[in-house]
């Protein structure tokens, strides 16, 4: 019998094999924003023109997983054909269940069929992860090995570590984007053992928990990535416990019955790379899409050749265009735009932070902002859409306006000349119990019905902001009474948070010799997260690079040390400057204005100005004509003390005269 399986049967295999179990994201989240007919094909739902499952399998394969099990409730044949066509060389099994899937049902099926042969990754098939997790698996296995060695010595019957949950530390701003999966946990810092997962930011720590360890940590600045590394014994726990059907129920069971089960669950914080579910809410789908367009999940990017779907070209400002794309006169792609194969756009369209699928036809004077258009969609002239998702085979007739957080389901038609209010779902049928029929005019040619999300389940950015609290670790302090009111500190503004994140990235890059290419990815990610302009990014990067010598020492340094350090740092990160200044005189002027402002604020380093300008000229990040143009307007660029400005002019005037003389000499020789 399965129930009689010995523990040692698993132990002999653990460490040799790594498997993966992929489950529907409806198990781990309530994806209310999807239309019923679209939610039924979860693994193949598009994320930036590729089935979301393709990203997950790329990550699973990179983690050196030997075999993968994909559980589906419907559409199994289609998923199987997809796997057979695009991943034929890998051991991937599609398992179709008759009953609607639950996590408990999946675990019991794995155990009854004896499919698990070693440690396995558990994730939903909308989990996007940018790095392999081999090192995390090694940590999990080492922890289990230590448990086996300790238990053999009979040292107090230690707890068996059966699961490691992966979290990603995030800033408060990023937490607002991904609030649907932000977490609060209490754990012991010595071995990262989780004691409980908190449902809210208001809680009381039980006395018995305080007796477990001398020091506890509460973290609320983390994202639950939805990835668990499980020991082979996890499915067995579900076998006779039919009341455990979800991961939270499983965690609660382990926490509450710890002494009986003798099991423990641990946490791991992903410092490099990023991982996140994509379909837990519409804001999260938007956030993950924008991060991918900004190449935050590199190498999982829209131009990766995963499905042999044709060449995708990348140009400035993260504009991705596939083959056979046409656009009319006056059509503008601002930034973070993906256009699918064989799609066409009319005249004078404005597309920003959006993706358009394959074989789509977009009319003239169409405005799309933070919209995700799937395949075979036709949009008429003078249509405006902001912050919405449009599924396959949809027709939107001319003059239609679709407001934010709307989902337009497959095979529907809307318009002409109508307005769909925010947080609406347009679909052919309604089996979503979280919606109610809305009395909305969908237009004379409409096909489908309009539903509104019920008030108690809709996503609200304001409530997320109110829930976002501590960014730092909280430690239990027995001197502080539980009923003492804490002081409220308003969250820092975006500009300060943006500067802080860039400073951390740049200083770490200098100290750890991170390549400029990798640093650019981090800077772009912060630029997107805080919606910073390119000029704002240049100003922050230049100012931090100028101040880096002092920031490392945490105090002012001598002028010789300052200029030597700057020269060394910019030599290492020259391509960072080249990437953002882009041989563009205006962006170079932004950099020079920032340098001018820095010297006027910190006049003690003013004597280094000529040497610094020679460095910038020699490494060719700022052009000669830009230096001259900037100097001509130096008096009007910034607010500064007249004495300091005149002092700066006198210091750099010899350099400017040298440039002019060199230019005149060159002209005479010509």
Question: What's the arrangement of secondary structure elements?
Answer:
Blueprint: H1 7-11, E1 18-23, H2 25-28, H3 36-39, E2 46-47, E3 50-51, H4 52-62, E4 67-72, H5 76-86, E5 92-96, H6 103-112, E6 119-124, E7 127-129, H7 134-152, E8 160-169, H8 172-177, E9 182-188, E10 193-198, H9 207-210, E11 217-230, H10 234-238, H11 247-256, H12 258-261, E12 263-269, E13 275-277, H13 282-293, E14 313-315, E15 319-321, E16 326-327, E17 332-333, E18 337-339, E19 344-345, E20 350-352, E21 354-356, E22 361-362, E23 367-369, E24 372-373, E25 378-379, E26 384-386, E27 388-390, E28 395-396, E29 401-402, E30 406-408, E31 413-414, E32 419-420, E33 424-427, E34 435-437, E35 449-453, H14 461-467, E36 474-475, H15 494-512, H16 516-529, H17 534-553, H18 559-572, H19 574-581, H20 585-601, H21 609-618, H22 624-632, H23 634-637, H24 642-669
Parallel strand pairs: 1-4, 1-6, 4-5, 8-12, 15-18, 16-19, 17-20, 18-21, 19-22, 20-23, 21-24, 22-25, 23-26, 24-27, 25-28, 26-29, 27-30, 28-31, 29-32, 30-33
Antiparallel strand pairs: 2-3, 6-11, 7-13, 8-11, 9-10, 9-11, 11-36, 14-15, 33-35, 34-35
Helix pairs in contact: 15-16, 15-17, 16-19, 17-18, 17-20, 20-22, 21-24, 22-24
